[in-house]
Amino acid sequence: xxxxxxxxxxxxxxxxxxxxxxxxxxxxxxxxxxxxxxxxxxxxxxxxxxxxxxxxxxxxxxxxxxxxxxxxxxxxxxxxxxx
Length: 83
What we know:
Elements: E1 3-4, E2 9-10, E3 21-22, E4 27-28, E5 36-39, E6 44-48, E7 63-65, E8 72-76, E9 79-82
């Protein structure tokens, strides 16, 4: 369920988490967490995305709601949980 942009390079042994989004042309040298958005050379954390691929903006309670489908996400200890 992850999305990998065109011409991205993924180094052997790297794990890409479920629903992760990788920008086109990125070089992936480290594991990518579920729901994490990364891009660049080398790729770096740029934010979090929903199952639908929309960028998530978290409130003061570390909860985000995807406007597309209304699903809620919790940011806890640098990982995302669907609630």
